[in-house]
Amino acid sequence: MLRMAVLQNGRGRRQAPAQRRFPRTSGAGRKWVSRAGEGCEAAGMGMLALQQGREAGGALRPGWFWYTTDRRRRRGHRGRASQVKRSRSPKISRSRTAVGFGVLTFAGLAEITQRELEPYHPSEVAVFRLRNYDLIVGKVSEASAGRLAGLRTVEDVFYMMGVPVAVAVRRDLGKLDRIVSRAEVLNGVRLKNAFCGPRRRKSPTFNCFVKQDRDRDVRRKQIAERVAARVGSCLPRWRRADPSEIELWGFYVKGSVHVGLRVSDEGMKYRGKAPQQRRGALRPTIAAALALLADPKPGSLVVDPMCGTGTILEEVFHREKAARYAGGDAAQEAVELAGERLAAYGIPIRRWEAKELPFGDAQIDCIVCNLPFGRRYSTGSQNPALYRALLSNWRRKLKAGGRMVLLTADSAALEGGLLGLGLKWRSECKVKVLGVWATIYVVEKGPARRGRAGTGRGRG
Question: Mind giving me the DSSP string for 152-208?
Fold first, then answer.
């Protein structure tokens, strides 16, 4: 059927529609014609540009109208004009659409990650504890969603679909069909393309995984199979494979299932580099948490006395490029690895003994360090003496008002050394490092800042 929309002329009266047979054109679309019925383009713009102009508040020339050239709509109605309807300008919505997001961090880092999320102004934020991980879900604006790739304390970012559903028994799995839809999956793919760049393939591959807080009657495999079947029915050209290009994750916590599409890749958690193969190397996301607490200022001197592969110094450098940095280690292998990693940033790495730092007294503004702990690098009997020697030297090198950000699983040895030197500290959080619960301490030289002073119990 002929569809026509006539704009009013300058005098506010309706224009008469042009009586004309449809042109014999192939394909579907809309064609702009003048009052005389001659095909043309208004003001040198095509239909798409005209529509965009109208949506932006622009106006068309009076007396111009459009009709469809879709053969399916004009079959059997050639040469006959339908009732003319007035064209109305669409209302422009000025509200920003909220996008559901989820971020996965190592267990214990949720509080620090929430601080990093503050500039994104998230809403409806909730934190869930999983095995070895913390899940933070919430909503951000569309503009902020694309910038979540800049987070450095998170392992992965997800586009969260719909509202979580309660799953208590197997028959409740059918509820997942409400939130896993074609539209939601494709919205997640668009956000993934914004993160990692578009990849056009005729038959994308996908897979499903599930994490949970504890075992329940409904198994993780059953949830994954249900989600995979739903995706296969919505997108029949997609093929399930492992590894896959697209990953859907279910998070089964507190009896409800949250479903998200992973929009980040391995480059986010490893900073686009190959994972460090040195034994005991710290993950960049945990190092980023230490850097956030260090909070270096422009021109300040930041030192890592036991730099290892240089991960901590790299993360602190990305937080404040105008500061000064130095690092060292007693192992030659570590010095070489850190030197290669930090050469592009101009950070000097030297071989030294951490108990005798080559700096004058009161010269260092901040010390950030992953202290040796565990059976691989020390023993419980060695740590008390080692920590006391380190802290004694570092306190002298630190300026008044300076701070130390330290990570260790041997809290008794560290707190004993701090008490013996009369230093004030606060324990920020406990984080799982290589399967062991370790504590992040912030030590102040001088008056302690407001916070949890003393030992401060964390998660265990």
Answer: SS-SEEEEEEEEEEE--SGGGGGGGGGT--HHHHHHHHHHHHHHH-----SS-EEEE
How far is CA 98 from each of CA 123, 141, 166, 403, 419, rounded to the nearest angstrom?
A: 9, 5, 23, 39, 48
Q: How far apart are CA 49 and CA 44, in angstroms?
A: 9
One DSSP character per residue, 317-346 reads HHH-TTSEEEEEESSHHHHHHHHHHHGGGT
This prediction's pTM: 0.75
pLDDT digits 0-9 by tens, 8-56: 444 444 444 444 443 444 444 444 433 334 333 333 334 333 333 433 4
Summary mean pLDDT of the chain:
80
Q: Nearest-CA neighbor of 415 among 460, 456, 354, 355? A: 456
Euclidean distance between CA atoms 374 and 383, whole angstroms: 10
Residue type, 215: D
| pLDDT tens by residue, 123-141 | 999 999 999 999 999 999 9
- Helix, strand and coil percent figures for the chain, each rounded to 5: 30, 25, 45
User: Two tokens at 201?
Assistant: 């393939």
Q: Which of 233, 394, 365, 347 is nearest to 300 (CA)?
A: 365
Q: 51 is written with which tokens?
A: 């529509």
Question: Quick check: 297 pLDDT over 70?
Answer: yes
State the Cα torsion 262-265-266-270 to the nearest 10°. Answer: -110
CB 223 within 8 A of CB 167: yes
